[in-house]
Design brief:
single chain; rod-shaped; 7-stranded mixed sheet; Methane Monooxygenase Hydroxylase, Chain G, domain 1; Beta Polymerase, domain 2; 7 strands; 8 helices; 2 domains; alpha+beta; 55% helix
Length: 343
């Protein structure tokens, strides 16, 4: 949202993209399916007049004006369009009467780096609009099912299609959590062997990712709970078991995240304990060395004094005797420390 603009005002991109937004439409019923790329608002109106369920999928949001024109053809509220265009919204659900607007986050891992993308869903009586800012093919499994020719009895309703899209995103959370689980376990094994300079940055990176996941999934759980409790005319009563199943998945994801956060807290304690043990070992070695050499330094200081009458200075074997006394004293102290298990 640009500062100073009235809410819901048409937004023009500050730097228009040379690439067009890709809008793919699927119109289907129990016996047929048709796919096409949408190029104009008039084409959207034509498709809306067709029978069956209409699914408009925006997979690469680059040309904002194309999306705004399509939303105008769908009759969407200006504030809803503004939230579609601004891809930094929080997870939420809003009931506009004629449509239900849902915003949630999709996560993916590239190596050890976690990225997120806003996915917006608009549920109408006979259509679903899905908007993603990146080309991720998150919903390819749903497309493949529609194209497979399998029975589409449940998918003949737009609310079930919206559920399948939500379910595919929540299933993606499990993939991310599996990767995070591997990283947490690898970090834990590294800390048991001995922390390195890389351990602490990795620990805080995982902690940041878990916090980011929690901030996105916690509102999703509350959103589904609100939908189950309050209901909406756009979602049939028959969808309650599916929504409860989706809610249970969100609860399970949240419990897994909390478990990982507790493990990370334990890993941090283990890291600090390892550093403390290592520091204590170093201090013990230095203390033992200083304790051994302290009496030797005392003897060397006595025999190093420049008094004229010092009998030991004239002994033939005085130098060797002094060294022998020092060596015996050092060996005796080491043996005593070992007996006390201080070394």
């Amino acid at each position: 949202m640009q500062a100073g603009r009235p809410p819901g005002e048409r937004l023009d991109p500050e730097a228009p993209s040379a690439q067009a937004t890709r809008i793919h439409a699927i119109v289907y019923d129990a016996s047929s399916i048709e796919e096409t790329d949408v190029a104009s608002a008039e084409q959207v109106k034509t498709l809306l007049g067709r029978s069956g369920v209409k699914w408009f999928d925006v997979d690469m949001l680059r040309d904002v004006q194309a999306l705004q024109q399509m939303c105008a053809a769908l009759g969407l509220h200006a504030l809803l369009v503004e939230d579609l265009v601004n891809t930094d919204q929080r997870t939420k659900i809003e009931d506009y009467g004629s449509v239900l607007f849902i915003v949630l986050k999709q996560f993916s891992l590239a190596g050890e780096r976690m990225t997120d993308e806003q996915i917006s869903l608009v549920l109408g009586r006979d259509f679903v609009l899905s908007v993603g800012a990146k080309e991720t093919n998150q919903f390819e499994v749903v497309r493949d099912y529609l194209r497979s020719g399998k029975p589409r009895d449940r998918l003949e309703h737009a609310d079930y299609l919206a559920y399948r899209l939500l379910d595919s995103i929540v299933d993606g959370y499990y993939v991310v959590l599996d990767r995070l689980s591997d990283r947490v376990e690898a970090l834990e094994a590294e800390l048991v062997k001995g922390p390195t300079a890389r351990s602490l940055p990795v620990m805080f990176e995982i902690k940041h990712d878990l916090l980011f996941l929690r901030k996105a999934i916690w509102p999703l759980r509350e959103m589904l709970n609100s939908l189950l409790r309050d209901g909406t005319p756009l979602v049939r009563h028959e969808m309650q078991p599916f929504l409860r199943d989706l809610y249970d998945h969100c609860v399970q994801v949240m419990e897994t995240i909390e478990t990982f956060r507790e493990m990370q807290a334990g890993n941090l304690d283990m890291y600090m304990s390892s550093l403390s043990v290592r520091q204590n070992e170093v201090m013990k070695v230095l203390t033992v060395a200083a304790t051994i050499f302290l009496p030797l330094t005392f003897l060397a200081g006595i025999w190093g004094m420049n008094f004229e009458i010092m009998p030991e200075l004239h002994w033939r074997f005085g130098y060797g005797l002094a060294l022998a006394i020092m060596a015996a004293l050092a060996v005796g102290m080491v043996a005593y420390f070992r007996h006390k298990r201080w070394m």
